[in-house]
User: Which sequence fits this backbone?
């Protein structure tokens, strides 16, 4: 797989459902120009670890907004599955769920498990100019850390060198 960090993010356009499950929308990379985008892939709706991540990020959306960042969650489920999940046991969230039903976006970002047709838990931070600045890909069984995502986002925005265990408000090198 070719690295994405330091390169322009793959261009995408996907069907999605709004966080309240009330409307179908389209989301595309250009929608996020001028803002940071935290785009994260998850395997499937109606599973076990996925709702913990989605609701965890949703609860802290204001912290991302303070850093001029938007959140977008993506899986290979349809937008109809996303809507049923939101209206069912997931509940309202504060960002859209995008459908990569064709698996093109998951493949372009290097997270698709071809034989299963699902995405690994990939997370990408894209800067306001559309460049991938950070990526991490987890095994299907391991959830991500909202704290670590916020820490890395803040570190990227310093423009400085951030040593191990750096936290916002601390000196950079």
Assistant:
């Amino acid at each position: 797989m070719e690295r994405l960090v330091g390169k322009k993010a793959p261009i995408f356009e996907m069907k999605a459902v709004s966080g309240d499950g009330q409307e179908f929308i389209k989301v595309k990379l250009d929608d996020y120009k001028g803002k940071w985008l935290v785009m994260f892939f998850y395997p499937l709706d109606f599973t076990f670890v996925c709702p913990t991540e989605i609701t965890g990020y949703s609860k802290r959306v204001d912290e991302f907004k303070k850093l001029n960042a938007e959140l977008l969650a993506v899986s290979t489920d349809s937008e109809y599955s996303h809507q049923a999940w939101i209206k069912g046991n997931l509940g309202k969230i504060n960002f859209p769920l995008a459908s990569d039903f064709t698996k093109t976006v998951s493949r372009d970002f290097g997270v698709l498990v071809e034989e299963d047709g699902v995405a690994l838990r990939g997370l990408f931070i894209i800067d306001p100019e559309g460049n991938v600045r950070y990526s991490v890909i987890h095994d299907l069984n391991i959830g991500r850390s909202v704290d670590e995502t916020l820490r890395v986002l803040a570190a990227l925005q310093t423009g400085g060198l951030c040593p191990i265990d750096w936290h916002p408000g601390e000196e950079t090198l």
User: Anything to note?
Assistant: The chain has one domain: 13-158. The domain at 13-158 is CATH 3.40.30.10 (Glutaredoxin). The longest strand covers residues 69-75. The chain has a mean pLDDT of 97.
